[in-house]
Amino acid sequence: MCPTEVYRDRGGIMKCPYCGELNNKVIDSRLSKDGMVVRRRRKCVSCARRFTTYERTEEIPIIIIKKDGRREEYSRDKVRQGILRACEKRNISIETIEAFLDELERDLKEAEEKEISSTIIGEKIMAALHKIDGVAYVRFASVYRDFKDVNDFVDELKKILNKPKEVKIS
User: Fold this and answer.
1) 3-class SS at 135?
2) pLDDT tens profile 31-79
3) How far apart are CA 72 and CA 88, in angstroms?
4) Is the CB of residue 156 less than 8 Å from the CB of residue 147?
5) Rg (alpha carbons) of the chain, rounded to whole number
6) What's this model's pTM, rounded to 2 decimal places?
7) Beta bridge partners of 26
8) pLDDT surpassing 70 at residue 169
């Protein structure tokens, strides 16, 4: 079976951009550096012209359900900006933040649901910040939980101070 027939068997018919013919052959396939895209050089059987196609996995967007019920697509940049604001003037590296964002996105993509409550994301961010830096945690919590006055800050600080510290064993 030729590569074109295999491709057709999987439901994908690639039309020649020059003559519109459906019959073409894959003459070269290469994987991109990051392994996320396959580049294929094709030759049309009818007009003999060559063209390039790119094959990518289809990303199903993650939809965030906001507190007021609105839905919007997940934005890594929006989450990053919130974390960066909370971590401003703290000794937290960008690598640490990016590693957390990678882990968060992996968790969201692996989740059964493709519509996720913003509450779940907010709690994951706060849990990570709590481990990384207490001040960044309180800053993020103040915006996320919409603190109304100083008493809200004090209550959150009491929660942090009353939790037993993790003992690190070397």
Assistant:
1) helix
2) 988 787 899 999 999 999 999 998 887 778 899 999 899 999 999 999 9
3) 26
4) yes
5) 25
6) 0.59
7) 42
8) no
Q: How far apart are CA 73 and CA 118, in angstroms?
A: 11
Instruction: Return the residue matching tokens 């849990």.
Output: 127
Direct distance between the N- and C-terminal alpha carbons of the chain, in angstroms, rounded to an integer: 60
- Are 116 and 64 in contact by the 8 Å Cβ rule? The answer is yes
Q: What is the largest CA-CA distance in the chain?
A: 76
Q: How far apart are the C-alpha atoms of 101 and 49, rounded to whole Å?
A: 44
d(CA 78, CA 100): 14
pLDDT at 89: 92
Question: What is the rounded average pLDDT of the residues 160-166?
Answer: 62
Judged by DSSP in three states, 154 sits in helix
For 40, the token pair is 């294929």
